[in-house]
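User: Show me a protein chain along with its predicted structure.
Assistant: Here is one chain, sequence first, then structure tokens.
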Amino acid sequence: MLKKEFQKHDVERLRNLIRGKSSSRTSQGVGYTKSSSKDYKEGDKWEENGRTWTIKDGIKENITKLDKFKKSTVPLFCPKCKNIMDKHLDTKYFKSYGVCLDCRTKFETKLKTEGKWEDYVKDTHNSEIDLLIEDYKNFFKEKLSESNKGFITESGEIEQWLGSINKDRAEESLNNVIEYLEGLKK
């Protein structure tokens, strides 16, 4: 025997749960929301009430002086699985891969079960060598463009050196290093 009868919204809620519509509303809410005069899109920046705002990933965020610090710190929750990142190695894995240890483990296990692990390791190794070659080429171009008209020593004296870089020999050395690095690819 029921001591209390079901209200209409209780019955509607049960019907929604049975149908699988757990997020459907059964009642109307009343409230006030301040209407914004402008609709902002992803990446827009604006100032409001003395603060600078932007929209990142669909979320309105305040731009502060600590934004660079925010990027270097580890969040409380993994961005992929939304679990708390409290394990010892989660911070190291987040800094390397952008996810927690569990997500990275699942990703690597999936690659291994599908037989794609060797290809993944090979592609990662080769892409690291390609980045190293690009960095070396940029370093080489930067050093060739430097002038040797004057150098300041530790004692503050200005030294002027005679001679110049043998560009043919330097190019040959660059090509030898690139050939060696290309040979390291799998």
